[in-house]
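Input/output pair, single chain:
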Amino acid sequence: MSRFKGKVAVVTGSAMGIGRVIATTLGRDGANVVVSDVQSEDVARPVLEEIRQAGSEAIFIPCNVTSAQEVEELFRKAVDQFGRVDILVNNAGITRDTLAIRMSDEDWDLVLNVNLKGAFLCSRAAAKIMMRQRYGRIVNISSVVGLMGNAGQANYSASKAGLIGLTKSLAKELAPRGITVNAVAPGFIQTQMTEKLPENVKQEYLRFIPMNDFGKPEDVANVVAFLASDEARYITGEVVRVDGGMRM
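Output:
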């Protein structure tokens, strides 16, 4: 497929997990991809190779999304390499789970800074480029816990709920310039992190999923690719749940 032929995508947190699958999906669909992460280039090398084998260009630019300076440098290098940025996927995120009464200031600040401030900084930098182009797609990776909350995840839930508010505000600001902004809210997705959970915990989660199955990173990536495409040109400010009916 080549629906993103000539397009350039920046995907944060894309060395591993859901971000990696998003980056490779966009690359297989023809996008040239900037893989960005706090991980080393060695960790990201398999992602780069997979995208290149699909016939697209891929480069790695390290970035701590909580640093405005590093974010500006990320987008400057992306434009220097490819001349434009058409798609931004704000995927970088972390967890620091514990009950609110035990949560440290540091763990609250760190999760909000990475998950929410990072998305703001990247969106601000990307929007400046996209506004000049009068074209762009921004997709924020939120979570169903941003819609429903979750015990032990006050910081994470707040950051993901904040992403939804950011999505809707940016959508209203940027729509006149041909830029759409949407969010994807995954439910329980199988990743290296979730694979470590005890079996009894997984079974408890399944009780709340009508489809009685966990999602795969590809399920999220396919929705991101649709929202980033011209097929979704008239969709903005939306939150699409990918959760097997968990939040239905």
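The beta strands are 8-12, 32-37, 58-62, 87-90, 136-141, 179-186, 239-242. The first helix runs from residue 17 to 28.
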